[in-house]
Amino acid sequence: MGSRTVIMIGLAGIFAAIAIFAGRAWLEKQAASQMGTMEKVQPVATTTLVVASSALRFGTRITDANVREIPWPSDAIPAGAFSKVADLVGKEPRIVLSGLEANEPVLASKITGPGARATLSALIEPDKRAVTVSVNDVQGVGGFVLPGDRVDVVMTRQPDTGDSYSEMVLQNLKVLAVDQLADDRRSEPIVVKAVTLEVSADQAQRLTLAESVGTLSLALRAAGHTAYTEMTRVSVRELGAGPKVASSDTEKTSVRATLTVGVTRGSERKDYVVPAERPVTKTARRIPMTIQAPPIPVAAPARDVDQTAVPVSAAGNKPTPRG
What we know:
Blueprint: H1 3-40, E1 46-52, E2 67-73, H2 85-88, E3 129-134, E4 150-157, E5 165-178, E6 194-199, H3 201-213, E7 215-220, E8 234-235, E9 250-252, E10 258-265, E11 268-275, E12 283-285, E13 288-292
Parallel strand pairs: 10-13
Antiparallel strand pairs: 1-2, 3-6, 4-5, 4-7, 5-6, 5-8, 9-12, 10-11
């Protein structure tokens, strides 16, 4: 091995050692900087908050067994929260009105007051009303309408005269209950016979009137969609199927048409039904016709000859003898 090779290997080792020590020093410096930053961060101030120990549904009574206290940031306490279980569980029981999940804060708006019952009236806003409408599996969106959903109400009506029509009578109504179920955390579909909706006083009148004059159906809205949609009435005629036309004195036929021909002789009249000249395929009206027959020549009197006149057929057929 030459001297030059030895020198090159030595220089490479020196540079490698320098790189290792420099990298190590840089890493230690970065770690020390991060530790200093972490030491400067002040701990978050916390307080206690009452949350549900497990899932609680509508009508559940609040007890020590289903709620507990946990640390919660002091600057993030929700309105209506309770800080102590003793403040929530007292001599007078409280009942869950709106479903709670595990570790969800228990808020005053989701439970009753002390000693109050878990009734539907406790769920209604102060300026609202609750109105129940009849539905079936189709009108109720196959059972997928559940408490807490938002729906539109569509009325279909068949008036005594005119076309059947459908129109949107109310929009964005909150579902309070289906049948006797008011649990807004239920997720399984259920086919019901009645749906209770939260409406204003004016909407209650419109909804009741619409149900009395037509058939109501519910249209389920997407979650979070509350915008009003401008809608117009839709009739059968707009669907491309016009109303049935009542039959009149005209008949549509593809068979051979006929005419009624009246032949009058003196004071005596007799009607004959004869075929028309050609068949018709469009609407044709049966037209009664009266033809005054011309005088019928009578042969000179002859012995033993019947002198009775015979009318001539209007269709050019052979005369039909009378008597």
